[in-house]
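To: structure desk
From: M.T.
Subject: fold request, one chain
Message: Could you run this one when you get a chance? Sequence is below, nothing fancy, just the single chain.
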Amino acid sequence: MEKTKETIKEGPVEVEVGAAEADKLIMAKRRDEEKRLTEEDEEDNEPIDASAPNSAGRSTEKADKGNSRGINLLSGVSTQKRRIKQSRGTRENGLFFSRDRGDGLNKDHRDGENSLKKELSAVLATTTSLPRKPAWMPEEQYKKQLESIEVYTAPEQELKRIKVEDKKSLGRRSAVPSHPISKKEHDVIVRNFYNDQTYRSRRQKRTESKIYKLRSFNNCIKYILISKYATRGGNVLDLGCGKGGDLAKWGLTQISSYVGIDISDQSIKEAIHRYRKSRCQFHAIFATGDAFNTQVPEIVAPFKNEVNLQFDTVSMQFCLHYAFANEETARRMLENVSRSLKLGGMFIGTIPSSDFIRWKIKRLHSGSKKWGNSLYEVEFPEPPPRDGQFPSPFGNMYTYYLVDAVDHVPEYVVPFEKLRSLCEEYNLELRYKKNLFELFNKEIPKYFHLLPPPLVESLKRSDGTYGVSGEDRDACSFYLAFAFEKTS
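Reply: Done. Structure tokens follow.
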């Protein structure tokens, strides 16, 4: 019997191949496309929380045993992907960006990457001075920060000849401020770090990172949380949107509009670049601003005629803890969230788990002020209270280090019950709270089919289960997920 022939297009050439060969070529193309979509979606963010004891009061041993197990899933689950047509209309204004869906406003659509480089070069060309060294910052760390800026501002042909000190060699050095820092100084530290991190992430190959699995787990958690609470056709406000790593997740839920705000101008530029490359169908606006101290309408004022300031969902992923520097900042942040939400709207996010922090503190040796492993480290300026109970719920600073991601950035403990009571004052009622292992174990069977195959594959363990273990498990035991509803 003569074999069936099929015509396959390879670039500009059409070739005739056998049916079996055609199937192989088609499947290979599909795998390449799925890998590309996953890479567009990933974000260089902090990893996750999970194995900490939860608020239900389980014993340490039971919590440890329950959270260490993986999830057995059927290997033949089919995954559907939405192919979204990319629009071309763009409008840009300084550190703000907006794009309508297919309105054709910009006929001269430039390549995103070249545009981003030109914009950054223009900003850097107008810079008259390098950032000043904070009083607490060691000379070694300040020198490293200046080197990273020099790398980015150098001509492209010179980049290969410039060597920056390897971050890993600095990983075990203490960088805790020697004195309390002001809110203004803290904002400068955070902004400078994430600007710097944007440069560094472009030079890093993700799959070779020691925290590749942690980042995958992180993305998996956000896929679940966003899918669980997003409103189809709704409006989204993403505070602390970073480099836009969650855009594909929001696109999967078929939202109609998106507003992304971040304190780091370089992260916003990267988010714009990522949005231009994506297939997201929703209308999007990006703006640089401090949503902890400035009202949202003021931040997005350049787009007041095209922004609906009543949102169905407000998201804060791995950034709310910066607001707990003091009560005033925490309240301004929650006021912004509450005013931005519609009645019945959801406030979702991920934060460091105060339960886990307290659990770790109680196990420290007398006089110790830090813990961690080869992947991460948490360090307080002074030995914390032995019982893990701080005198005030605000201003309890520690620095957080995560290899290839976070370099001793000052953060603040967020006592969850204090957060809950504050939210209630702003008409936000708790609907969901789980450490990330609990969330993963309970929700993954329902949302497994939504995950891109490469993401699923990166979480597969040698015993056939899915999740993280060993040092990865301890490092990702630092966060919990929450959801509050706007009630009045």
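Reply (cont.): The longest helix spans residues 19-41. Let me know if you need anything else for the meeting.
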